[in-house]
Design goal:
heterodimer, A: 283 residues, alpha/beta, 6-stranded mixed β-sheet, 4-stranded antiparallel β-sheet, 10 helices, B: 283 residues, mainly alpha, MetI-like fold, 0% strand, flat
């Protein structure tokens, strides 16, 4: 469903972020992109929906040439490609509901956006999707009042509003703690298995890649260094991808944990446990 | 100080032995500053010999010997709006109307003057440069000079004062608004673009919610400044209470002038307080 041919992205600074990547991705796959920071994972993902304009090469999505699409065609393609981000990228001052409804924008005329009158069916679908990720009760809360894991679930609900065929996830759990990471990854797994949405997800932890991916693609310096089944990555391949000095770390087992701490709580906890500050949080 | 290096047989860094107070760069700066002050005193010919201390003391006394007759109409031809308090209210509204006119022009222009909105192609990039250049040129002309020019062009009176103030504020508000847009979080823009939304929808959904508060804050700040500036407009022919102040000084009615100055001080202090309170609550 997705074909990438000789894709190259060179930034104006001269950085060759993507250096000749060719890939075929089949419907229903759960592809995990791994690689060091700066190996081109984000650029590759963003070239697929042209948030980043590729320098050369072709991206073909379901028979449509994304790289040659006009602006209107590109918008029609984009609305079938959901995307979730490391920093969630919600409108922080907006409600959870309005952030979710934003996923429908590509299907609706601009005047509806300006008048602030979403269609009834869109609102119903928003509650449906928020319910799927377990936060329908937060619909009227401000987005920035939610924990990181909850915000990422809003991000997933927003993407689901697009009825996507493909879901791009750029380090969706890199800002989350291990327990929350698993809960978010499970929602991605569910939409992949139940809805048949193809997922391309970049991850930092190989343990997560092994647990959730049906296929792992490793990038090194903007080129594909490994492409195969997750269990085929052994010690030798690992060192090839991450370098000789790398040691694999585990993200920890899945377990149910109480709600993750908010950033403030975490900061206070860190302060309190810092011996140099002598428990400043208690004062 | 140098023991660390001496004990290890390392060369002692020159920085350690320098006394910043006697460093040549600092001495040069001090010498240049003194030179500027000396030359300034020589060529500006500041001369207090024509001042008359006894006369000045008398005037100061009269300034506090307030003439309350200016608070009521002097004859049957004058109305409330010819009294000092009436003119004070007129002056406040001159500032308000000037601000409103400036907002109407600066608000749409500010989007054209925001780099993150206008990047993309040469045309929009060029518009950005021109708009910001115009803002800078407008701001560089002091508001009093603008009032004098508008007084010549439009005739002395409220029209010249209001339009001059509005003109100057297009430059100030335009810059402040544009910078508010440039300071927004680009994440939501990226996310909304990825849903297939068009440019108008992206601005409406991802940009506007982020700039509402800074815009209100900047607007109140300028409203406050404009109401402070409004009394001065009258001195150069811009209408309002400034004309009354100018006339009373010229007619040696220092009792009236003192009262008017007091009224302006109270108004400005109240504006200052109110503006600070509202802005504090917004942030």
């Amino acid at each position: 469903m997705l074909a990438i041919q000789d894709l190259v992205k060179v930034y104006p600074s001269g950085t060759r972020a993507v250096n000749g990547v060719s890939l075929e991705i089949q419907r229903g796959e759960f592809v995990v992109l791994i690689g060091l920071s700066g190996s081109g994972k984000s650029s590759l993902l963003r070239c697929i929906n042209r948030l980043v304009e590729p320098t050369s090469g072709r991206v073909v999505f379901d028979g449509a040439d994304v790289t040659r699409a006009s602006r209107a065609e590109l918008r029609r393609i984009r609305r079938r490609i959901g995307m979730v981000f490391q920093q969630f990228n919600l409108v922080r001052r907006g409600s959870v509901l309005s952030n979710t409804l934003a996923g429908r924008l590509g299907y609706r005329p601009a005047w509806r956006t300006i008048l602030g009158r979403p269609l009834r069916e869109d609102v119903a679908a928003a509650f449906e999707n928020l319910g799927r990720v377990g936060i329908a009760d937060k619909a009227f809360a401000r987005a920035d009042a939610l924990s990181g894991g909850q915000q990422q679930r809003v991000g997933i609900a927003r993407a689901l509003m697009q009825h996507p065929d493909l879901m791009l996830a750029d380090e969706p759990v890199a800002s989350l703690d291990p327990a929350t990471s698993h809960s978010v990854m499970k929602y991605l797994e569910e939409i992949n298995k139940k809805d048949g949405i193809t997922v391309i997800c970049s991850l930092h932890f190989l343990s997560l890649a092994r647990r959730y991916g049906t296929r792992v693609i490793a990038l090194k310096a903007g080129a594909v260094a490994f492409d195969g089944r997750p269990d085929a990555i052994d010690e030798r391949r690992f060192k090839e991808i991450y370098g000789e000095d790398a040691v694999e770390v585990e993200i920890g087992p899945e377990r149910s944990q109480p709600q993750p701490m908010s950033a403030t709580e975490a900061a206070l906890a860190a302060l309190a446990s810092d011996p140099d500050l002598g428990g400043i949080a208690d004062r | 100080m140098a023991e660390y290096f001496v004990a290890r047989g390392l060369p002692v860094p020159a920085e350690l032995s320098q006394n910043p107070l006697t460093h040549w760069r600092r001495l040069v700066v001090i010498a240049l500053s003194l030179g500027v002050v000396y030359i300034g005193l020589r060529i500006t010919k500041i001369d207090l010999s024509s001042a008359n201390p006894e006369y000045a003391a008398g005037v100061i006394g009269q300034l506090f010997h307030w003439d309350f007759s200016i608070l009521t109409p002097r004859d049957e031809f004058e109305t409330f709006w010819d009294t000092a308090e009436g003119q004070m209210i007129v002056t406040i509204f001159l500032g308000i109307i000037a601000t409103v006119f400036a907002i109407i022009v600066a608000l749409p222009l500010s989007f054209l003057g925001a780099r993150n909105i206008m990047t993309g192609n040469v045309l929009t990039g060029g518009i950005y440069v021109v708009v910001r250049l115009v803002f800078t040129i407008i701001r560089s002309i002091d508001v009093l000079i603008v009032v004098i020019i508008f007084g010549v062009l439009l005739g002395i009176g409220s029209a010249a004062g209001v339009l001059a103030l509005a003109f100057h504020n297009v430059g100030v508000l335009g810059k402040l608004y544009s910078e508010a847009i440039e300071g927004i979080d680009p994440g939501p823009l990226e996310a909304i673009t990825a849903t297939g939304a068009n440019r108008v929808q992206v601005i409406w959904t991802a940009v506007l919610p982020q700039i509402v508060n800074p815009y209100i804050s900047f607007t109140i700040y300028r409203l406050d400044t404009n109401v402070r500036l409004a009394p001065i407009l009258g001195l150069v022919g811009g209408g309002g209470i400034g004309i009354l102040l100018f006339q009373s000084v010229n007619l040696l009615q220092y009792g009236a002038a003192g009262l008017i100055i007091f009224m302006i001080v109270v108004t400005v202090a109240l504006m200052d307080f109110a503006s600070a309170q509202i802005r504090r609550r917004l942030v």
